[in-house]
Amino acid sequence: MANGTVLEARDLVVEFPGRRVLDGVSFSIREGELVSLIGPNGAGKTTIFRSVLGLLKPTSGLILTRAKRQSDSATAATTARINGTAATATATSTVAKRAFGYVPQQVSFDRELPLRVKDVVRLGIDGHKFGFSRDRKGREKRIAEVLEETGIPELASKRVGELSGGQQKKVMIAHALAGEPEMMILDEPLANLDLKSQDQVVALLERVSKVKHVAVFLSAHDINPLIPVTDKVIFVSGGKAACGPINEVMNSEVLTSLYGHRVDVFDYHGRMVVLADPEGGHHHDHAEGHGGEGRLNW
Amino acid sequence: MFSSFMVNAWIAGTFVAVLGGVVGFYVVLGGNTFAAHALPTSAFAGAGAAAIAGVDPLVGLLAFSLLGAVGIASLENRASQGVPTALITTFILGVGSLFLSITNSYGEQIFAVLFGQVLGISRGELWAIGGTSIVCVGAVGLMSRPITISVLLPASAEAAGLNQGRMKLALLAAVALATSIALPVVGALLIFTLLVSPAASARYLVSSLRGGVVASVMIAVITVWLSIGLAYLTNLPVGFFVGTFGVLGYVGARTLSKVTSR
Amino acid sequence: MINWGMAVISLAAAQGTGSKAVANGASGFLFSSPVDHALVAGTLVAICAGVVGTFAVFRGQSFATHSLSDIGAAGGAAALLAGVTPLAGFASMGTVAAIALESAETTSAKDRDITTGVLLGGSFGLSALLLYLASNFTNVSGATTGVLFGSLFTVSASTLPFLAAISVVVVLSVGLVARRLTLASFDPDLVRVKGKSPRTAGLIFLVALGLAVAMASLSLGAILSAALMIGPAASVLRLTSRVGTAVLTASLLAVAETWLGIYLAYESYSWPPNHDGWPASFLVVALVLLVYLASRGLERLRVLMGGNVGLSGGSATERGRGATPHV
Question: Are B28 and C114 a contacting pair at CB < 8 A?
Fold first, then answer.
C-alpha cells in the first residue's frame, strides 16, 4: 500500500445467492481526496460501502486500510488479506470500523424526539462505548469545535427532528466527523436535497477534504453537482468498476466497455450528459433498475 | 395511609417507578412499544408455571419474560413489523391460560397477577425489588450510549461495530427484568403503562436526552405516588389510577407542546 | 350442522390423522351442540380474521390489531357489569378505540406505536377498574378469565345471528375500501391524487378491524384474538404477494386452524393431566404460531434454493412498509 493511501481495494468480489454483485472491483483512496462513487441504482455502490465498513464479508479480494491509532499520533499501516475465511475477514473489519466516519443515506428523526443537535454530535464521539463517560469538558469542547467546522454552531441546542433535510444532513456529517476519522463514507449524501442544500453540503465536504485532510468517499447517482470538487471518480456498473480522474473515466470509451454496449458522454455547458444506445439496452442484464431505457437515470 | 404495611407499598412503588421511567425512556426512544407490552404479558404465564412447579413466582416471571425477549429479538427484524411479537405474546398468554386450566391454585390470584396488588408487599419482597431495581438501572446506565445510538442511528451503530441484534436483546432483557420486578406491584398489564406513558409524555416536555430520562422518571414517580394514595383512599385498584394518569399526562403534555409551539 | 362436522372429518382425513380414534372422536364431535355452535362461530370469526388480517399485516398494523383486542377487554368487562352480551361490549369498545387511534394525529410509524401504547395502557386501567367492580358487585364468577381468555364452547345459539351480521358488515366494508387501502399502503398521496381521502379508507378499515377483533375476542378471548387476525395473514403473505390470493388463502388457513383447534380441544378431554380439556383458545393460538414459523422456514428454504431474492433475503411482502401487492 503506497504512502498516503487510506484505503485500497483489490479485485473485490461479492456474491449473493444467485447473483454476483461485485465482479473484481479495484480502487484506491488517498489522504484528503474527495472520491465520488457513481453508478446506476443496484450497481453495487452500497455493497462496496458495506464491504469497506466491514459489515459484509467479500467472497474474495483484498481490502487494505490504514488505521489511525488514537493513543499515539503514529499511524500504522495495517493490511489484511481476505480470502473468504472468517478469521481474517473479522480482523479487517475491526480495523476498518474505527478509522471511518459513516453517514447513512436514510436517517429519520421524529419531530418529538428528545434529541438536540449537540446530543447527536456527542453520540459521534463516544456513542459506541459502554460505561459512563469521563472527560466531559474535553468532549463538550470537541462538540463546539465540530459544530463550528461544519458551520452549524447556532443549531447546537435545537431539536434535530425539527430541522430541514439539509440541516439534518449537516448534523450527520458533524456526527461522523466528531470521532476524528481519517476517512468519511457518505451514502448518497445529496439524495432528496434541494439545490441550495446540495451546494452547501458539497461545499462542506470540500472543506472537510481540503482543509481537514480527511478523505471523503461518497456515492451519488449524478456526478454533476460534484464535478467541481471531485478528485477521483469510481464508476460502477454491472459489478465492474473504473477508477480515475473524471475525464479519464466519464468518457464514451470507458463507459461503453463497462456497460457492454455503446454509451455516449456529452459535455453540455460544463454538465455531463450520458446517453445509452437504445438498441444496446437489452444486452446487459446484470444491473437492475434500468432495463432498456435510452437515457440512464441522471 | 403511612402505616407500616403502607410504607412497604410506597417504597416498592417508588423503586418500580424509577425503574419504569428509566427503562421506558429507551423503549420509547426506539419505538419498541409493542415489545414492552409483549414481555409483561409473557411474564404472566410464568406465574402459572411457577405455581405448577412449586417455585418462587419471581423465578417463573423472570424465566418467561426472558424467554419472550429472546424469542422477539431473534424473530423480529426491520421488515416483519411486529408480527412475530404479536404471535409470541399471544402464544405465551395462551400457555398461561392452559396453566390456569390445569391448576386452580392461582385462579384467584389472576386479577392480582394481571393488575397488581401493591398493598400486599412483604419486607422480604421489598429487598428483592430494591436490589434488582438498582442493578437494572445501573446496567441500563452503563449501556445507555450504545443503546441510544443503536435505536436512533442503527446504520451508524452498525458501522461503529455494535451488533444490532445483541443491543436489541440487551434492551429487551432490561425490560424483562423490570417486568419481573414490577409485576407483583402493578401487575402484568400495567407495567406496560408505566414503561410507555411517562416516557412518551416526557418527549414533549424536554428536548435533550439526559433531560428526557430525568423527566420520564419524575413523571413515573408522581404517577405511582398519586395512584397508591388514591387507591388507598378509594379502595379501587391501583392499576386503574396508573392507567388513567398515564393517558391524562400524555394528553396534557401533547397539548402543552402544541400550544407553546404556536 | 352435519356439513360442518363432515368438513372437519374430511379435514382430519386430509391431514393424515384419520385413524380409528379420530373417527370415533369425530362422530361424538358431530352430535355435540356446543361444538356445532363453536364451529359456526369459529368459522365466521376465522373468515373475517383472514380478510381483515391480510390488510392489517400489509399496512404494518400488527400492534394496532393487538391493542384493539386488549382495549376490547375493557368493553367486555363493562358489558359484564351492565348485564348485556359481551359481544356488545367488545364491539362498541372496539369501534370507539378504532376511531380514537385513527384520529390521533401522529408524525411517524414510531409515534403511532407510542400513541397506541399510551391508549392501550389507559384501557388496561379501565379494565382493572371494571373487572374489579364486576367481580365485587355482581355475582358473575370467573369474570376476569372469561373476558380475557373467552371460550368457544360457551357461545350461545342466540349470539350466532349477531356474529353472522357483523361478519357481513366487516367483509363488505373491507371489500369497499380494499383498492384504496392497497394503493395507500404504497403511498397515501396516490389516493389523494385521485381526489379521495386516504384517512376515510383508513378509518373504515380500522372500524372493520375493531369489529372483527370484537368477534374474535368472544371466541378466543380478548387478549388472544389478535393471533388469529395476524398469524394466518402473515404466514400467507410470506409466500404470496397477490392481494386476492392472500385474502382467500388467509381466510381458509384461519378457518382450518380454528377447526383443528376446536377438534383438538374436544379430543383433549382425554388428555393428561386432568382429563377436563385443554382450552380451545390456547390450541388455536399454538397452531397459528406453528404455521407462521413453518412459513418462515419454508421461505428461508426457498432463499437457500437460490431463488431470485433481494439483498436482505426477506420476502417481498415483508421487506418494506406496505409490501408489494399486485392486485
Answer: yes
Find chain C residues with C-beta within 8 A of B43's C-beta: none
Print the domain residue range for B150. 4-189
Per-window interface: C 265-294 vs A, CB < 8 A: none
- Distance between CA atoms of C88 and C215, rounded to whole angstroms? 10
Distance CA C62, CA C230 (A): 7
CATH number at residue C251: 1.10.3470.10
Q: What is the CATH number of the domain that holds B71?
A: 1.10.3470.10
Query: Which element (helix H / strand E) includes A26?
Result: strand A19-30
Q: Are C60 and C188 in contact (CB under 8 A)?
A: no
Do residue B206 and residue A53 have CB atoms under 8 angstroms apart?
A: no
The CATH fold of domain A5-107+180-283:
Rossmann fold (3.40.50)
Nearest CA-CA partner of B16 in B143, B172, B138, B136? B136
CA distance A39 to A61: 21
pLDDT, tens digit only, all 298 positions of chain A: 667 888 888 888 988 877 888 888 889 898 889 999 988 877 888 889 988 888 888 888 888 877 533 322 233 333 333 333 333 333 333 333 357 889 988 788 888 888 999 999 998 888 888 877 777 888 888 999 999 988 899 999 999 988 988 899 999 999 999 888 889 999 999 988 888 999 999 999 999 998 888 999 999 888 888 888 899 999 888 888 888 888 888 777 777 777 777 777 877 777 777 777 655 444 443 333 333 333 333 3
Check CB contact under 8 Å for B203 and A128: no
Residue C6 lies in a domain: no
CB contact under 8 A, C121 and B190: yes
Q: What ipTM was estimated for this complex? A: 0.85
- The answer to whether residue B205 sits within a structural domain is no
From chain A, pick out residues whose CB is under 8 angstroms from the CB of B250: none
Cell match 464479508: residue? A57
Cα separation of A197 and B228, whole Å?
A: 54
pTM: 0.81
Contacts of C108 in chain A (CB under 8 A): 108, 110
Q: Do C306 and A111 touch (CB under 8 A)?
A: no
Split into its structural domains, chain C has a count of 1
**Cβ pairs bridging A and B (under 8 Å):** 89
Q: Which three cell numbers stand for residue B245?
A: 394518569
Cα gap B18→B215, rounded to integer Å: 11
Residue C4, in any domain of the structure = no
Question: How do residues C206-227 score in pLDDT, each as one tens digit?
Answer: 888 888 888 888 777 766 778 8
In a domain, B173, yes or no: yes
Residue B86: which of C121, C109, C226 has the closest Cα?
Answer: C226
**Closest alpha carbon within chain C to A19:** C308
Asked whether residue B73 is domain-assigned, the answer is yes
Number of domains in chain B: 1
User: Does residue B76 lie in a domain region?
Assistant: yes
| Residue C247 within a domain | yes
Residue C302 lies in domain:
32-319
* pLDDT tens readout for residues B74-122: 887 766 777 888 888 888 888 877 877 776 655 556 666 666 666 667 7
Nearest by CB to B31, from C66, C113, C273: name it: C113
